């Protein structure tokens, strides 16, 4: 069993449309922070924009995330963004945690599609699943509802990858403090 001292908590924002389901989403923002389960500190909060292949972003996507076409147009593509993250975060030696499975699935799918070496997921922690098990909840709970159930106000903006990563780390902190 691998040992680790810190957890990389991530969140993704991807291209999206209000009523189109036949288009594959692409990552446009990766939020990340480091959570130390021993000290319960959250550090190195950051977000990285990625240029998708398909532009412009939909109005729905910009309204939801606050990310504009101009912002991502001048950003590096996903491969370069991942290389930057690999240089700044210990993603090969520490587990990745995220809210649910959708970010893991999106990363794996998009890495495969774009021929990117997947440096992630030697260990993956599904924080949503842990939370639901801890709270004995049978149906899917979103991050905002989970924060509410922990008597915690969300930090930052909903659908901002950095803020959502930090809020996910705060749920991990809650679970540890309440002795999962």
Description:
The chain is of the alpha/beta class and 180 residues long. It has one domain: Nucleotidyltransferase, domain 5 (2-Layer Sandwich), CATH 3.30.420.10. It has seven helices and five strands. The chain has helices at residues 59-65, 69-73, 78-88, 102-114, 127-135, 143-149, 161-177, and strands at residues 7-14, 27-36, 41-49, 96-98, 124-126. A five-stranded mixed β-sheet has the order 3-2-1-4-5, with helices on both faces. Helix 5 (127-135) packs parallel to helix 7 (161-177).
Global geometry: globular
CATH topology: Nucleotidyltransferase, domain 5
Question: What helical percentage do the residues reach?
Answer: 25-40%
What is the domain tally?
Answer: 1
Average pLDDT figure: 90
The count of DSSP E runs of length 2 or more, i.e. the number of strands, is 5
Level-2 CATH architecture: 2-Layer Sandwich
Distance between the termini: 19 Å
Strand order of the largest sheet: 3-2-1-4-5
Largest β-sheet summary? 5 strands, mixed
The unreliable regions are: none
Given the structure, what is the number of helices? 7
The gyration radius over C-alpha positions equals 16 Å
Q: How big a fraction of the residues is strand?
A: 15-25%
- Topology as a string of helices (H) and strands (E): EEEHHHEHEHHH
Structural class: alpha/beta
């Amino acid at each position: 069993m691998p040992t680790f001292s810190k957890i990389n908590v991530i969140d993704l924002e991807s291209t999206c449309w209000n009523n189109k389901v036949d288009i594959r989403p692409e990552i446009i923002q990766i939020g990340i922070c480091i959570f130390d389960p021993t000290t319960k500190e959250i550090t190195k909060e950051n977000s990285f924009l990625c240029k998708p292949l398909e532009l412009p972003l939909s109005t729905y996507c910009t309204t939801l995330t606050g990310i504009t076409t101009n912002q991502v147009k001048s950003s590096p593509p996903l491969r370069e963004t991942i290389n930057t993250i690999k240089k700044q975060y210990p993603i090969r030696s520490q587990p990745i945690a995220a809210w649910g499975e959708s970010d893991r699935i999106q990363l794996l799918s998009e890495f495969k599609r774009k021929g990117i070496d997947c440096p992630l997921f030697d260990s993956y922690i599904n924080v949503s699943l842990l939370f639901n098990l801890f709270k004995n909840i049978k149906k899917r709970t979103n991050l905002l509802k989970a924060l509410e159930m922990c008597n915690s106000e969300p930090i930052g903006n909903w659908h901002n990858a950095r803020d959502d990563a930090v809020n996910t780390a705060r749920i991990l902190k809650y679970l540890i403090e309440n002795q999962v």
